[in-house]
Amino acid sequence: MEIKELGHAVLFVKNLGRSVHFYRDVLGFAMIEPEGTQANSPVPSRVAMFSSGRTHHELLLIEVGEQAPHPGQSHRAGLYHLGFKIGDTDEELRSALATLKAEGVKIAGASDHTVTHSLYVYDPDGNEIELYIDVAGVDWSDPANTLAPTKALSL
Predict the structure, then answer these.
(1) Among 1, 31, 91, 113, which residue has the fewest nearby CB atoms (within 10 Å)?
(2) Which CATH code for domain 81-152?
(3) DSSP for 63-93?
(4) Which pLDDT tens digit goes with each residue over 4-21?
């Protein structure tokens, strides 16, 4: 067997409406609507599916209710973060930062990984999300670049 690509991620969320706002309206993911439904349909749904257009879906949200426990932060087994490429320039990263701040999104930090410049934020359920750009002209296939020490990034 050989993995060809990471196809999609599925997240359990406490409040689907709040999470749809974050992933669709703040991050800009296109929401996939089933045939014959509308985004403001009065029929509640416990799932929402999103795609950047690369494939049928890259993100699926499943509502589990406000009382569902979070697996925790810091060092623990489980998902650390999801990374989403949002562009090719630091200007796009700065623009994203301004949008996130305007929306009141909690910012975890910013890092220069040599091959990428990354902004780390938390979604409404406390899941860490990396928003990044690939740094132009840096050879990511060179381990000296991909394994370079992380530096602080000032936007």
Answers:
(1) 1
(2) 3.10.180.10
(3) E--TTPPP--SSS-SS--EEEEEEESSHHHH
(4) 788 889 999 999 999 999
